[in-house]
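hey m, so remember when u said the tokens were messed up on ur end? i reran from scratch. heres the input so u can diff it against urs
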Amino acid sequence: MYFTSEQLLDDGVLEREFTVGEIPGTLWIPASAGASGAAPVPLVLMAHNNGLPRTQSRLVARARHCAAHGYAVASIDAAGCGDRPRSAADEQARIELRRAMQAGEPVDEIFESFIGPLVEMAVPDWRTTLDALLTLPEIGGPVGYSGWTAVGIRLAVVEPRIAAAGFFAGGYVPRAQRDEARQVTVPLLFLLQWDDEGNPRERALDLFDSFGTKEKTLHANLGGHTGTPWFEVEDGNRFFGRHLK
């Protein structure tokens, strides 16, 4: 892991850009975490939906808020995501997916052919990054996950260091992850926008029902895909506080 830049933000959070091999990422951490004698802080991995960049303003706002409450928060551009290279086929699939969703046409096959491989590529990058982050003396366990449902399901199943997870917008999830959902046994907070134009409500409710964990909570709010109320960020911090601290 190589740190390429560092700046202290006005909320007392230290923002550090890093690379792990070809993986670019950002780490937000309380500035006090590196102080002499300070205990290591828990880690939250934060992923945006469907390959959007780690620099997206809503993700950055959530990450900084979480870090200000005593967590190390990391986000990456995994393979095929953010600023990482994308094939012409991937770009065409994105265009077709948006067009079909806007037109109200069936999107399952397009979704499977595009998002399924994206999840398969992203999860190894997240695990490699987690290995590197946990070598830092200011970061300890346990580890939480927040964000993209499909990647989160796979990570929660294959990565024993994930102790709790918060998932967003889970209507459209590849078949492989829908099948894996029953293997998710960590405490879970599932956020649902009731009028989400990009994630069918019934699919999201069915997915929530299928999770195998004995501790799962569903928060549903009125509004579209980007209308999640800010108080859910506060609730997310309390959720991680119960399971990571």
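this time it looks ok to me. The chain has one domain: 2-244. if urs says something different then somethings off w ur setup not the seq
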